[in-house]
Amino acid sequence: MIVNETDPSRRYLPLVQQKMQTGGIAPSNTSFADTVREFVGEVNNMQIDATEQTEKLIRGEPVDIHDVMITAQKARTSFQLLMELRNKGLDLYREVMRMQV
């Protein structure tokens, strides 16, 4: 934990809370659904970029092969992360459904 020793009133607050109180970080008002929708959109854009780069390489357009591979790997990794988040969400849902009320 990083503390701010210059202001004794906020001495023991975590750095994130210190910045929020001073106006350094604005609290987020976005919902969980908006955050997930944004993440899925970013993953989709990465997939589209990877497809476009691959098609340019196949057509013989001047594109660096390492850029194509990096773009494809970023898209693959982000998609795998999205799938793991989905799987964990489904596991959580199943666990909640099994709870006795």
Structure description:
- This protein has 101 residues and is mainly α.
- It folds into two domains: 1-28, no CATH class; 31-98.
- The chain contains three helices and no strands.
- The protein has helices at 15-22, 32-59, 65-98.
- The longest helix is centred in the last third of the chain and has 34 residues, at 65-98.
- It is flat and about 60 Å long.
- The chain starts with 14 loop residues before the first helix and ends with a helix.
- The model has no long low-confidence stretch (mean pLDDT 84).
Secondary structure blueprint with pairings:
Layout: H1 15-22, H2 32-59, H3 65-98
Helix pairs in contact: 2-3
List keywords for this structure.
flat; mainly alpha; 101 residues; 69% helix; 2 domains; single chain
Care to give the gist of this entry?
69% of the residues lie in helices and 0% in strands.
In helices, the fraction of residues equals 55-70%
Mean pLDDT, all residues: 84
Shape: flat
Which regions have little confidence, pLDDT < 50, spanning 5+ residues? Answer: none
Radius of gyration: 22 Å
Distance between the termini: 39 Å
Main sheet: strands, sense, barrel: none
The share of residues in extended strands comes to under 5%
If helices are DSSP runs of H or I spanning 4 or more residues, what is the number of helices?
3
